[in-house]
What does this fold into?
Amino acid sequence: MISVMPTDLAPHVSSGVLETEIARWSSPAGRAVSGGDWCDAFRLSDDVLALTVGDVSGHGEAASGTMHFLRAAIVKAMRDGCNPSETLCIANDLAYARSGGVIVTAIVGVLDLRERTFAYANAGHPPPILLFEREHRFLKQARADLPLGIFRHHHCADHVEALSDESLLVLYTDGITEHARDLLLGELELAQSARHAYDAPENETARNIAERVLRELRGDDDAAVLTVRTRLS
It folds into this structure.
């Protein structure tokens, strides 16, 4: 089952500096109606957007319940003004206290359309990919950027990346890059599919990337993709 989740953002958001197009795609594993992956985009101000993607270990209703609980906490922390690493510290406290030894990977980011920056923190999650006209790269992460729920005290690094006039930022869960249990192949497929999506802006970007990567081999894990395309308004 494939679901496209609603967002409180219109597909096109204009700041007077950069215009953005946001797309999301999500698919629970197998025949499940819900799963442990999430991706969200919402407005913090006219010029600032919040982005988050995450993956709760396990599948089905148990993972889904934890996912909704943590996602809500992350959204609240970001709306309350916490920066990305502070937000993940709050999420870690909740994940660590959750019974059953739940482990969560997540990214929290803030995209400033006026400053043209993407500030983010990563808790053990597959790194976003950022594409420009002539290049792409997987964004950096530090060794201390560990998953949530493992240690009582958690602190990950804050990173900042510059955006160009036209760029494509892709956040995803490992159900995309590990669907064939080959991470290197999965990252190559993702990079190629993201480049195709960059060059075909008229298509629904997140779905386009997911369907090109997965093709006939869906894998047995939840999967999600969040894309943000920026261009001059």
User: Anything to note?
Assistant: The longest strand covers residues 18-27.
